[in-house]
Amino acid sequence: MAGAVRQHAAGWSLLEDDHGVLDDLLSSETEAVVSRFAGGGDGLVAARGYDAVKDGLRYIGVRAALDEAVVALKVPYDRTDAEHEDKLFALWDALRPGLDRPERISPKWGMLGFQGRDPATDFRGMGLLALEQLLFVAQSSGTGYLAVLACAEACDEEPFYPFATAGINFTAFALAALRRGDLDGALMAAAAAVGAHQWTLDAAMEVFHAFYARALLALHAQWRAEMPEDIMAFPGVSERVQAAMVARVRRGDLNELLSPGL
C-alpha cells in the first residue's frame, strides 16, 4: 500500500516534500493535509469520509518516516562517537552481566559472537542499525529472549552460532524485508490495532524491531532443533528461517509478531 500511494502520477513524493506535508502528518496537523489533497472537503473526502482520509494519510506519513529513520540509523559505526561506544558497551553489559568490560580492542568481544577483536569492523555493512537491534533483543524480557541470550552466553562454545554475527546478518534480512514491502501488512495491522492517533514513528519502529527479534528467535529454535555439527551449517539454517518468516508475514500470520511479549 505505502509504496503504491507514496508517490502520485505527477511524481510528487512524501520523501521529497517541499511543502511540509510529512511534517504535518507526523505532528497531527492532518486537517491541513486533507484540505490540500481534497480541495477543502470535496472530491476524495466527500467520497471516502474525512476521518478515513485523515487516518490513511497519517499512516502514509509514518510509513515514509520509518523508511527515513531506518536509513538514518544505518550510519557507519563511529569509534570516535561516545554514543556509539556507549551502546556497544551496553550490549556487553546486557549479555555478560557481572563480567568486567573488555578493552575496546580485545579478543573477548568474541564471547558475544563478534568475528574479530574490534566489533566496529563487524558493523561495516549495517552500521548502527545492527547495534540498535542487537540491543533491542539483549534488553528485552520474556522466556523466548532469555533462551536466545542463554545461547549468546555460550556462543563461544561449539556448536552454537555466534550471536552478534547472526544478529547483524538478520538486520540485513529485516531491512530487505521492509524495503520489499513484506512488512506492510504487519504495519497496517499494528496501526489499526492502536488507532490512527496513537500510530507514531516509535510504534512503527517497534514493529520493525519485533519482526527482527522474532526472526532471531526462530533462528535460535531452528538451530536447537537441528543441532548442526558445526558453524558451517549456519547459512543454510538462516536462509530457511528467513524464507519461513517472509512467508508468514506475507500470508498475514501476524498474531505472534504483533503480540506485546513472549
UniProtKB/TrEMBL annotation:
PANTHER family linked: ENGULFMENT AND CELL MOTILITY, LD01482P
Name the UniProt record assigns to this protein: ELMO domain-containing protein 2
Entry-linked Pfam families: ELMO_CED12
InterPro entries in UniProt: ELMO_dom, ELMO_domain-containing
Domain ELMO as annotated: residue spans: 83-249
